[in-house]
Structures are given as structure tokens and as C-alpha cells.
Here is the input.
Amino acid sequence: MKTRLDVPRLCLLLLLLLLCLWRTEPTRVQEDGAPDADPSSFCSSDGNKRREAREAPEISTLPDNMTRVVVDSQRYYTWESFGPTDRGTEELWVNLDGLQVQIHGILSSTHRQAARVALSFDFPFYGHYLRQIIIATGGFIFMGDVTHRMLTATQYVAPLMANFDPSFSRNSTVRYSDNGNMFVVQWDRVRLKQREAEGHFTFQAALHRNGTIIFSYQDVPVPVAQINSTEHPVKVGLSDAFMARVSASASASASERNRQTIYEYHRVEVDASRIVSRSAFVFTPLPTCLQLTSCLLCLTSDLVSGCGWCNTLQRCSDGVDRHRQEWLDYGCPEQARGSCQDFEPPQYEGPTGSFNDTSPPPAPSSSSEEQRPVTQKDQQTSPPDHQGATENAAIVAGVAAALLLLVALTLLAVYYINTHPTVAPPFYLMQRSNNYWPSMKFRNQGCSSSYTEVELGGHEKDGFIEAEQCC
Here is the structure.
């Protein structure tokens, strides 16, 4: 009798067990890396536990050592991130110990300074070829043509832009190396201003001749998210901008009509949370319209889209680059709407009849006067033309007299300035020639990230720009 009663109970237990296994099956069909759920939570009579299991947030399945490729939205760059466990991370770090390195003495001993450095090769940046860059103590490189105090606003290559102060320690240096194919800048053992006790940072930016940019990090003691951006912007990535004149009314002053504004047309921002010790980023440039040198390539290339050809400038562009103002001044937007056939010069078309060698030559004139040969006697009887020679001699004499007068006035002015250095006019000219730079205006006055270029005796060089955004 007991055996008959145990069989139904056993069947009931097996049925419950199968039910539990069936309800836990979906939790095992998850993406790789997600932990399996506890079957007891689903078989429990507590409904709250089942609700919490269903509403659990998604878990990222991207391993830390996986390389991630992000395609840029406007097709300027693609970038890859490398973690500490990636095999290629150590190879991306450039060891400067075995290279010819220059330590910039001023940048290594000052705060918020920038210095201009010439490259040994043309570096393509957003399709523009640059031969000079400006290295800043704040962990970035300024790539613009016009220098100004707000270098952090636009046109930068920033491995880690922050408020670094290399003057805190003698071990903190800013050094660089150029081997003709690669330019490397390393911020070595630099510390954050007023946070020096948290440790030193060591990182570098490498500019390759083919346009590739590599950020490498050796020591990052503080997460980038915890770096304060109140006193100095914190940025990681690339940025470029163009300058254009602001349209003003006819009644505006001359300074307002000539005011130029910087427009940041593109920025590459990377995931700053992935910046840790022994990590790296690689930025690979993509083709741009500026690299297409003919109308046919410009309008038919499959590498880029949206390009237009300006026949006046002989340039291919989408209208959004550093030559934006020139593109507008020469009416290139209208020319870009046309085709290559519109710019071909008209070919000369001769007579409609074909040339025939058998056609008879023109009949000679019957006039004996036209057939009579010209003799030497006839040539001598014509009077010589002296009027042209007289006019040329007068022009040459006038130009020579003007040059002599200009040289005399120049020598007189130089002599006067040297013998009277304290007189107001020459002293005014000397001051203006050394220190004058056009004024600079910014829309956002809240930024305090002012930089001073250390060339030319420490004088500030303010650009004639108005920044659209600076932080």
C-alpha cells in the first residue's frame, strides 16, 4: 500500500523538477559573458525575486582585452582602443630612450605655456598638410595656423588635455623626437595642478607621416572622469575648425566687418573611461575631398562623397574645411554644382570644308606694283622711327629716378631714427612693430584656460578670432 502511495508523489516531484528546468532554460541562452541565473530564484514562491531577475540591467559582453573600432560620423578618422592585456599595446608605446630626444626647457619648468615646433615632414591633419605645431604643457598639441591664448578651444590633438603643471617637480619634463617619419611628444611624470599628491602621469602622442595618430598611456594614477575641468578643459581626442568672417551690416564699424569667427566643424571624442595605465588609441585617417587633385577624380571617386570641384581654385572640397572662406569668396559653391564638361575650354573649329592638296592656289594679282620686288634702295628711302626709342628711354629714366628717391628717403629715415631714438614717432614705430597683434574676442568668457606662447621673448600673441565654443 505504501508503494502505491509513493509512486504518485514521485511523479509529482519529477513533474515539478521538469517545470523548474523548463523555466530556467531561457536564462542560459544569453550573450557570452553573462552569468547564468540561479534556478532556485525562479522556482521560489516569492514573486519579487522573479521580478528582480527579469528586470536586471544588461551586462556588457565586451571583454576588456577586445579591440573596438568606431567609424567616425563624418568619415575623417576611424579609431581603435587597446587595453592593457592587448598584445599590440606595448608595441604602440615609443621608447624615447634610444632616440634623439629634445627636452623643452621652458615647457618642462612652467605652467600653461606653449611652444612652436617645426616638423621635418608634412603631416596631414583632416586633409590639410601642416609643417608646424604648437606643444602645450596641458597635455595636447595645437594644430591651428593662428595662435591665441585659448589654444584649448579647437584644432587640437589631445591625448589627455588637463591642468598639468610640469614646474612642480624637476623630474617632470616635456620632450619630443622627430625621425623624419614620426614625431613623438611625451609628457613625462607630469602632475595635476593642486593635486600633485595623487601621482604623476606619463603619456605620449605620435604623429606619423601617413597621418596616423597614436595616443599611448604608461602611467594614469587617476581616472579621467575624476579630473576637474573647472580650471582647465579636460578633453581626449581630435578637433579641427575653420575661420570665416562674420556678416555685418553696412553701418557696422570696420573692426566688426573684419571680425573673424572660428567654427569647430568636427570633433573626435573617445571613451575616456578606457584610458588606464598601459592603454592606447590609434586614429587612422580616411580619404578627404582635399586629396583629389582633378575634377574627374573629385566627382567620380568612390572613396568620398559630397565633393565639388572649384575650377577657379583648382580644388576639390565639400566646402567644410580650413579653406572655407576662400571657397565662399571665389564663388565655389555655384561652381561645385556643375560638371567637369562645364570647365573644359572651348575647342577651335576651323572651316567646314576639308583641306585639299589638289585645290588650285590663289591666282596671283595682276597689279605690277604688288609683284615688284622691294629693293635695297626702297628700304633706305623710308625714314627711321625714333619715336619708340625716345619713349622707352623716358620711361627707364623715370623709373630710375623714382628708385633713387626711394633709396635716399629710406637711408634718411634710418639715419634719423638711429640718431634720435627718444623722439616720439620712431619710438612709437618701434613699439608697434614688436608688440602689436590684432585683438581677440571670445563668445564664451567663462573659460579660464588661457595659454601664452613662449617664443618672441614671452609676448602674448593674440589671434584675430572669436571662438564659437572653447570648453
